User: Which sequence fits this backbone?
């Protein structure tokens, strides 16, 4: 029975945790496939037309394309403008078509069918007011545009609630309106958009469904397939744009020639005018004559032009003869009008921007990437714990089987005496052990496969809205679990039988001599030994008498403590970094992105922020993505250059990772954060290579390493930057410390409304989203604790049980001698208590190692977890282990009570 | 009233549908300071009497009085206290704790008594002065039984109950043990009750109680008990 339990627990735990990652990924893949999630989204700065879609449609490797409109507008909710992303939904969508991508999943109600209807999304960020049947009024985010420029209606009726495979997490797209981020999306019929060009092109590729959507193969395939598509898309738009440009240029040319013509006419005096008119009328006559013989369009057009010009001239002459200057004025007016129109055309030409194509893959969404990351984190944990459980399971099997073989000595002896071969006898016990092993594996894995992914997944469900998880029974994994379990059980059985079988039958038939009493090493320290109480001495000696069992119990208890400690430790290590990073290191409250395209940005920002009542202090910085290389490895990092290196301390605490002392950002100093130095294997004084796009690659010497937990940074002073690159840093962000009681909503709206600022991120929001992802770890912590508890119960109970069965006689004797029930239990308990205490202490040591290992394994490149064990990890692990031990002891108490004193009178076997 | 007195004691066991009467109206008395032997073939009901007298089991009917207390009416806790303070028990197979030295085995009993004879003194008395710090496995059967007796006596019990004390011992060693028990009775005035199937021991006792088929067959009193050394079997 205990073999069955421990095997079930071990394999169930392993199989469950191990299958969580594939389960999560496969469920997501299935979800994406079912709802035809796009592989690539293309957006151009000039929009695109149906012809551009056609250019992409027929290309090789394209499975489906769909074009859509989207725009970000306001939706007034509770007196506040919420930024909503309005996307188009093609009401004619055919579910059999490959072109129907990013299919919305209907949760309630129906999809929009008629104009004026919309569906809203169901996520947590959606205001509660979204209910089916309600009206939704949208308004334009810009004061100079009307909502009708985007839509044919401004009010939509909610007819359904949906989820979209495009958004599997919390994050919605960034926007330039409102507070800088979208709250939710709504879908309206495509025909309700009044925009003249499409904004988004979604593409699905052939053959990518078969690849795991988070795999490298998928990324590579998309990377490869998207090239010709982007190319075709861009050239199609370019061609269209260049046509437009050509037209405009032609218009400009003709207008300009007309202006110069008119100007020259205006400048002529009467005589010249008469001469010129004469010449012109002659030319006209000639042309007319020529046309009578052969008609060609070009000449006809020239003739009309010439005739018109002639009329103007004649009019002018006549007017001048009459002394009337109005014709001159009229001509001047015409020139002015023509000039105006050329200006217009020029402006238009200038406005035709160079076509830019933005590509977005699935991984462009942080949520998509972090979903993969989260499932891999669990896998990292799966690497460690099961090994532990298998080890313990093997130990339990060993004790149980040893005990069984001991009990069956005489039987084994009889078999041997009867002439059975050792092999046959071993087989008998093997089968006895294999049956519970196999059933244990089957039941354990069956439960594990279902329960673990389900629980873990549910905790992630707060973060992701992938509807459900499939938890298939993974035959291959179960098979390997069974193989490992069988091997370890078989080995223990054979090992424990071996001793018995090597004995002669006659020897076996005699009862095994009871283990002789022995002095323990402690007795040699007489002064100490003398001080110990009688019962303490007895307990110590008993513990050391059954060394194997003692060791086994110790391992069980230590394992339990270590598991619990690791569970709490991991949680702490991860949650601690939020505090460390967002409270203690990043001192600023918000970071705003500056609009480098805005004129005089460098001069305007400081006064703007100075004037704002919600701003306490601010610092402009330059943040540039860069690649850091050393020892043949390379990692991405951010190069941070504060405008004023002296005050950086007020915004970011840069302190030495070992001594904790503040690092001042002196000129020539290169300060780099801790994790990346670990990844690169470099330390102070080593050289790193810094690569920035469009800039020369430089070699820098690390002068100090700073404490930091999330992302990688390199800090240098503006002077250092200038020395390195020979130019000033471009300040593209500003750190802001808010005044007390600052209203973040109005502040961010005020800021975004200004041209100089593109967006703002509040550290509190960032920390919060970080926190919520950590909350999901709670489930894992609980899982570990429950497994640890089960482990403790099985191991402690099993061993204590064996202990009692072997010592029934002794216990019965104690009872006859007049020990009260409590005293009898205490006599046995003492051993358990001592073992538990020693086990807990060992467990602490083991827990430290285990915790460190898990933290290092689970850590992703961008993050450094706190590696220290938290104080309550020690206390809680000890406490819980003690509680489990006490519970086992309570059960044992009743077992002890039941022992009959008559046992003491029986003969020895 | 006698020191130990069984009056119409019945004990029945339910074995499936069959009721086995293990004690069928057992009645006998033992006086203080007597050396009593309860004899009977196996299955005669000796063990049942021993269990009830030793406070390990209760009777269904009748009364068992020891030193004026009716232990038949005791609850579990009182029975434990009775075993603890009033009874010294000597087992057939000695039942020493393997993991304790001779001295410690005796201490195990004295640990829990209110008034006790120091363990080393007690071992001296049974002649194991030299073997005090040996473990049971290092002692011979006779020596182990001496330790067992020492353990029983260290508690200063009112009654020394011995279950086949010679059963696992050879002839001479057995005799020595019986001698020790007899001496304890004679010299210290201890009431000793020996339960055995060995009729040969009977002549050395003050009182011989014979059991047969769960009943008392006879109770006889030896006016002149023989010395152990003169008995042979």
Assistant:
């Amino acid at each position: 029975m205990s073999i069955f339990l421990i095997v079930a627990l071990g394999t169930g735990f392993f199989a469950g945790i191990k299958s969580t990652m594939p389960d999560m990924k496969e469920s997501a893949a299935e979800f994406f496939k079912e709802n035809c999630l796009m592989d690539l989204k293309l957006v151009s700065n000039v929009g695109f037309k149906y012809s551009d879609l056609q250019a992409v449609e027929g290309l090789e490797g394209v499975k489906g394309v769909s074009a859509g409109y989207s725009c970000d507008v306001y939706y007034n909710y509770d007196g506040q403008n919420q930024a909503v992303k309005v996307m188009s939904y093609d009401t004619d969508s055919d579910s059999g078509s490959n072109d129907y991508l990013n299919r919305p999943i209907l949760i309630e109600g129906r999809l929009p069918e008629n104009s004026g209807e919309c569906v809203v999304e169901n996520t947590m960020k959606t205001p509660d007011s979204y209910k089916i049947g309600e009206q939704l009024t949208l308004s334009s985010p810009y004061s100079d545009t009307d909502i009708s420029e985007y839509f044919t209606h401004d009010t939509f009726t909610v007819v359904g609630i949906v989820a979209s495979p495009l958004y599997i997490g919390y994050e919605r797209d960034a926007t330039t309106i409102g507070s800088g981020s979208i709250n939710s999306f709504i879908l309206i019929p495509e025909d309700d958009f009044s925009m003249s060009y499409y904004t988004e092109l979604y593409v699905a590729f052939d053959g990518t469904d078969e690849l795991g959507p988070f795999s490298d193969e998928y990324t590579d395939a998309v990377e490869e397939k998207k090239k010709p598509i982007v190319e075709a898309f861009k050239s199609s738009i370019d061609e269209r744009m260049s046509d437009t440009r050509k037209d405009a240029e032609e218009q400009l040319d003709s207008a300009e020639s007309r202006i110069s013509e008119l100007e020259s006419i205006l400048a002529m005096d009467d005589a010249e005018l008469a001469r010129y008119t004469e010449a012109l009328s002659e030319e006209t006559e000639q042309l007319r004559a020529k046309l009578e013989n052969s008609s060609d369009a070009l000449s006809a057009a020239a003739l009309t032009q010439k005739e018109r010009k002639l009329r103007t001239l004649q009019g002018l002459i006549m007017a001048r003869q009459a002394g009337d200057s109005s014709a001159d004025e009229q001509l001047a007016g015409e020139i002015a009008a023509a000039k105006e129109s050329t200006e217009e055309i020029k402006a238009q030409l200038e406005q035709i921007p160079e076509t830019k194509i933005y590509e977005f893959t699935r991984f462009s969404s942080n949520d998509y990437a972090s979903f993969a990351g989260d499932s891999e984190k669990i896998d990292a944990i799966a690497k460690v714990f099961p090994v532990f459980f298998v080890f313990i399971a093997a130990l339990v099997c060993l004790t149980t089987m040893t005990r069984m073989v001991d009990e069956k000595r005489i039987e084994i002896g009889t078999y041997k005496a009867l002439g059975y071969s050792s092999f046959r006898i071993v087989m008998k016990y093997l089968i006895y052990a294999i049956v519970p092993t196999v059933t244990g594996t089957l039941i354990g894995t069956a439960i594990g496969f279902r329960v673990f992914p389900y629980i873990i997944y549910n905790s992630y469900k707060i973060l992701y809205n992938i509807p459900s998880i499939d938890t298939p029974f993974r035959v291959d994994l179960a098979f390997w679990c069974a193989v490992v379990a069988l091997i370890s059980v078989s080995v223990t059985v054979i090992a424990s039988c071996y001793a018995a079988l090597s004995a002669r039958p006659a020897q076996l038939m005699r009862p095994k001599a009871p283990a002789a009493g022995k002095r323990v090493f402690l007795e040699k320290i007489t002064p100490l030994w003398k001080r110990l109480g009688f019962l303490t001495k007895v307990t110590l000696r008993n513990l050391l008498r059954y060394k194997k069992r003692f060791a086994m119990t110790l391992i069980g208890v230590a394992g339990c403590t270590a598991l619990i400690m690791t569970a709490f430790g991991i949680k702490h290590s991860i949650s601690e970094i939020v505090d460390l990073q967002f409270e203690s290191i990043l001192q600023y409250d918000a970071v705003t992105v500056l609009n480098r395209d805005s004129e005089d940005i460098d001069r305007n920002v400081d006064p703007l922020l100075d004037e704002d009542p919600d701003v306490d202090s601010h610092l402009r910085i330059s943040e540039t993505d860069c690649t850091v290389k050393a020892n043949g490895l390379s990692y991405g990092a951010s190069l941070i250059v504060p405008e004023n290196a002296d005050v950086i301390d007020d915004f970011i605490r840069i302190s030495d990772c070992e001594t904790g002392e503040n690092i001042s950002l002196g000129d020539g100093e290169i300060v780099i954060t801790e994790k990346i130095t670990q990844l690169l294997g470099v330390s102070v004084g080593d050289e790193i290579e810094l690569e920035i796009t469009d800039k020369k690659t430089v070699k820098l010497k690390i002068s100090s390493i700073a404490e930091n937990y999330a992302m990688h940074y390199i800090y240098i002073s503006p002077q250092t930057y200038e020395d390195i690159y020979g130019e000033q840093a471009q300040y593209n962000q500003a750190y802001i410390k808010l005044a007390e009681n600052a209203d973040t909503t109005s502040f961010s709206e005020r800021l975004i409304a200004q041209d100089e600022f593109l967006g703002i991120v509040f550290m509190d929001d960032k920390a919060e989203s970080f926190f919520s992802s950590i909350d999901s770890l709670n489930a894992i912590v609980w899982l570990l604790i429950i497994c640890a508890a089960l482990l403790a119960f099985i191991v402690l109970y099993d061993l204590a049980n064996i202990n009692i069965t072997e010592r029934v006689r002794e216990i019965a004797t104690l009872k006859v001698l007049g020990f009260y029930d409590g005293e009898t239990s205490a006599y046995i308990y003492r051993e358990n208590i001592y073992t538990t205490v020693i086990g807990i202490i060992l467990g602490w040591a083991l827990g430290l190692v285990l915790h460190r290992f898990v933290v290092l394994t689970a850590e992703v490149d961008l993050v450094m977890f706190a590696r220290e064990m938290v104080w309550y990890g020690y206390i809680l692990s000890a406490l819980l282990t003690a509680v489990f031990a006490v519970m086992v002891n309570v059960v044992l108490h009743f077992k002890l009570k039941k022992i009959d004193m008559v046992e003491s009178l029986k003969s020895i076997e | 009233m006698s020191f130990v007195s069984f009056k119409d004691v019945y004990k029945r066991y339910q074995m499936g549908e069959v009721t086995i009467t293990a004690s069928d109206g057992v009645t006998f008395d033992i006086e203080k300071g007597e050396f009593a032997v309860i004899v009977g073939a196996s299955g005669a009901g000796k063990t049942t009497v021993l269990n009830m007298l030793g406070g390990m089991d209760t009777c269904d009917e009748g009364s068992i009085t020891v030193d004026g207390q009716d232990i038949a009416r005791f609850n579990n806790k009182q029975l434990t206290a009775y075993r603890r303070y009033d009874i010294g028990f000597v087992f057939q197979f000695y039942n020493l704790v393997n993991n304790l030295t001779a001295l410690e085995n005796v201490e195990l009993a004295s640990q829990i008594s209110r008034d006790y004879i120091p363990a080393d003194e007690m071992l001296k008395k049974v002649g194991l002065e030299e073997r005090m710090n040996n473990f049971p496995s290092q002692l011979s059967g006779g020596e182990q039984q001496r330790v067992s007796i020492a353990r029983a006596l260290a508690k200063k019990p009112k009654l020394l109950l011995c279950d086949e004390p010679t059963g696992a011992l050879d002839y001479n060693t057995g005799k020595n043990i019986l001698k020790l028990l007899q001496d304890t009775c004679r010299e210290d005035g201890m009431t000793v009750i020996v339960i055995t199937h060995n009729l040969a021991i009977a002549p050395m006792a003050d009182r011989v109680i014979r059991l047969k088929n769960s009943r008392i067959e006879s109770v006889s009193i030896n006016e002149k008990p023989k010395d152990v050394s003169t008995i042979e079997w």
